[in-house]
Amino acid sequence: MLTFDITNYGHYRLGLTSDEINEYLRTRTRKKNITILRQKFNKVAGVTTMALGPEGQILMYRHDVQRFTNVVLLNKPTYFD
């Protein structure tokens, strides 16, 4: 599995769009088909606080994307588990 610096990844300062999250998952796993992985990610993410981009885009905070991805890929619990 690839390590990935998410700090400066994505177009918006506040977080990642859904497409950017998909690309992040593809990059970390080096897989093109991430359908099942994205379903697991969404289940782990559940309901979480998100930001709005300047044109109303829904953005997930980078630290949440990284944390939820680590749960799915590394079986690493979050701080609240």
List keywords for this structure.
single chain; 81 residues; mainly alpha; two-stranded antiparallel sheet; 3 helices; 2 strands; 44% helix
Q: What is the arithmetic mean of pLDDT?
A: 89
Structural class designation: mainly alpha
Large-scale geometry: globular
What is the percentage of strand-forming residues?
5-15%
Helix percent band: 40-55%
Overall number of domains: 1
Number of strands: 2
How would you characterize this protein structure?
With 81 residues, this protein is mostly helical. The chain has one domain. Strands 1-2 form a two-stranded antiparallel ribbon. A hairpin with a 5-residue loop joins strand 1 and strand 2. It is globular, with a radius of gyration of 12 Å.
Summarize the topology:
Blueprint: H1 18-29, H2 35-45, E1 50-52, E2 58-60, H3 62-74
Helix pairs in contact: 2-3
In short:
By secondary structure, this protein is mainly alpha-helical.
